[in-house]
Amino acid sequence: MSQKTREYAHELVSEMTIEEKMEQMLYNSPAIERLKIPAYNWWNEALHGVARAGVATVFPQAIGMAAAFDPDFLYKIADAVSTEGRAKFNEYSKRGDRGIYKGLTFWAPNINIFRDPRWGRGHETFGEDPYLSAELGIAYIKGLQGEDPDHLKSAACAKHFAVHSGPEALRHEFNAEASEHDLYDTYLYAFSRCVKEAAVEAVMGAYNRVNGEPACGSRRLLKDILRGEWKFKGHIVSDCWAINDFHTNHHVTATVEESAALAVENGCDLNCGTAYLHLGSAYRQGLVKEEAITESAERLMEARIRLGMMEDYPSPYKDIPYDKVECREHTELSVEAAKRSMVLLKNKDHILPLDKKKIKKIAVIGPNANSRDALVGNYTGTSSEYITPLEGIQRYLGEDAEVLYAEGCHLYKDKVEFLAEEKDRFAEAVITAERADAVVMCLGLDATIEGEEGDAGNEYASGDKPDIKLPGLQQELLETVAATGKPVILVLLAGSAIDLSWADSHIDAIICAWYPGARGGKAVAETIFGENSPSGCLPVTFYAGTEGLPDFCDYNMKNRTYRYTDCKVLYPFGYGLSYTDICYLDAGISSRECGVKDGVTIKAKVANRGSYSVHESVQVYIKHMDAADYEPGYQLKGIRNVLLEPGETREVEIALSARDFAVITQDGKCVVKPGNYTITIGGAQPDKRSEELTGRRVDAFTVERTGEEEEIEY
Fold first, then answer.
1. Is the domain 582-711 a CATH 3.40.50.300 member?
2. Helix or strand or coil: residue 277?
3. How many Cα neighbours within 13 Å face the side chain of 283?
4. Which H or E run contains 28?
5. Where do the domains of the chain lie?
6. Nearest CA among 539, 543, 540 for reference residue 569
7. Mean pLDDT across the chain, nearest whole number?
């Protein structure tokens, strides 16, 4: 951001009264006509497309986009999203429509760590790994904001800062306790990189307390770390009505005035909620200084100036036409994203892809087979067209084969019809399966039962899941249909890990389709029939049950995620099959010995020896062989996604810096230690389960780092 922008903001705010400054700190900021400042509502959403403001391209949910393991592709998606956001803003503004969900400040991405598969909002994130979350978060932010820091295309917001991933039912009162190691090693890493490398314009605080302090008023988080250690220059926004929780639920303050003052004094500039309506009273009581109010108002004006909302500081994006909203280019990109998100978990005897010429009748069964809710996840826009898996298969096969359909069961209830008996759709499912050459079972979840507290008001856990089993009668339905003896392809539409232990042992093929976007059924069909070879990788671990997981409220990372777990893993983080044969050749490393602050480069040739084109996600992991008990095991520290045509070979090089080898000590310091490190390169994690599932081992190298232990920049 230039000095010119800062000076302009300072000049604008200097002409405001104290009351006007405070009014600009509300999410629905009023106009100041004498200063030519228009009214503005800061609240808008763009998690996987412009949300809640009418028609827009609906991309796969964030967890699905993460499965592509491709930051460059995510940048392309975010650029399309911001184009549509600009097009909408430009046209709405001309008509004086400045309401909620019509602005350019998008409260996305969600870069919290998906530490526990029971968390209902995990599908909003990029998964369980800090490095992957950072790489994808940076790409999404840059795509939303554009390349010119003085003329933002839109403003991104990294949320929820920090140590926030359930339980949803307790989020307004919960105190998340994290050690210094876990805080910096896991919970803050992606935020730090999004601030430093992507210059994210906004950061949103969390509802919960963190080690005793409410996140939206935490001196440690907001002043000491975010603005102090990381030099964050953008604005901080509270989560919605979170500041009211200070006195009503956390009980760290006694009144709404004290709550508002605590937030402002610690750097929270913008209030989503009503607490800042009481700032005037807090100011008159001497609880908050005008200097803090002025600083917040200036930061907010800086953002609006950079977004081109002032007449004499126009935006280069002001002429993006409304025709860009849900245009063909973007809808095709959304289908491509759905294809890239597909993760093939099992493919017994290469049953997939199905041969269209050999299928005369196919049964499509399950509560998610024809469900629009199962396409889109939460925080979603409105599509002009939805294609469910059933519709995708019907369109793909056309008149060439008969497509039979049965709902089978309700998503989570014991019957579909209110007055019916239990299992009222089971018989229909069996009848349908018996008449088919093959069966596609579409099971899983949707955002009505896994999501945000208040939105997913389900009977289970306020948006969270009590376990990771298929809900309701779905498991019994799967077993009943499988008992017909027909070939079964399970398509899982869900935003989180499900225990598929039985399916892994008994079902022929399993595809994890996530929430694939409005037209995701087209991608499902084309994947089943071989128009698309699946290439996605799991951004989360699929466990065989929750028995080994810690208590949901425990924020210690021990036994959580692939980096720390000793739990029984069904499908590992980073895993995914394809229809083609990929092999790694001539792997090498630039040095087997180096100083503690030196980097190394690892490389390999990646060859496609099969007959399908595929996007291969090359993954590099590092492990400190002399790690302390509290340190993680193997960690992802490099990814490169390459498109390989049949018969093509490409060489991939990935550079690793000293920071990639660093560990976080128990007191939160970032250090590089001497000793031996194992580095692997391949298409999966270097674990036994991945080797069992893929039949391939990754290439591994040992590097000795010499010298003295040294602290480096976090």
1. no
2. helix
3. 17
4. strand 28-29
5. 3-324, 330-571, 582-711
6. 543
7. 96
Please identify every residue annotated as catalytic: 239, 450
Q: Which two tokens stand for residue 111?
A: 């870069």
Q: What is the 3-state secondary structure (H, E, C) of 280-340?
A: HHHHHCCCCCHHHHHHHHHHHHHHHHHCCCCCCCCCCCCCCCHHHCCCHHHHHHHHHHHHH
pLDDT value at residue 150: 94
Give bridge partners of residue 161 from the DSSP assignment.
205
- Nearest 5°: the CA angle 683, 58, 352 is 40
Domain 330-571 in CATH 3.40.50.1700? The answer is yes
Q: Secondary structure of 545-584 in the HEC alphabet? A: CCCCCCCCCCCCCCCCHHHHCCCCEEECCCCCECCCCEEE
Give the Cα separation of 689 and 599 in Å (integer).
Answer: 30
* Bridge partner residues of 44 (DSSP): 106
| CA dist list (Å): 186 to 221, 425, 566, 612, 664 | 15, 45, 17, 37, 9
Going by CATH, does the domain composed of 3-324 fall within 2.40.37.10? no
Q: Side chain identity at 13, as an amino acid letter?
A: V
Cα torsion 622, 606, 537, 350: sign: negative
Measured distance CA(402)–CA(77) in Å, rounded: 35
Over its C-alpha atoms, the chain yields an Rg (Å, rounded) of 26
pLDDT in tens, 554-613: 999 999 999 999 888 999 999 999 999 999 999 999 999 999 999 999 999 999 999 999
The pLDDT tens digits of the residues spanning 156-176 come to 999 999 999 999 999 999 999
CB contact set of 563 (below 8 Å; sequence gap of 6+): 129, 186, 557, 632, 633, 634, 635
- Closest C-alpha to 59, from 391, 307, 336: 336
pLDDT one-digit tens code per residue, 404-421? 999 999 999 999 999 999
Please state which of the ranges 104-108, 308-312, 539-543 shows the lowest mean pLDDT.
308-312
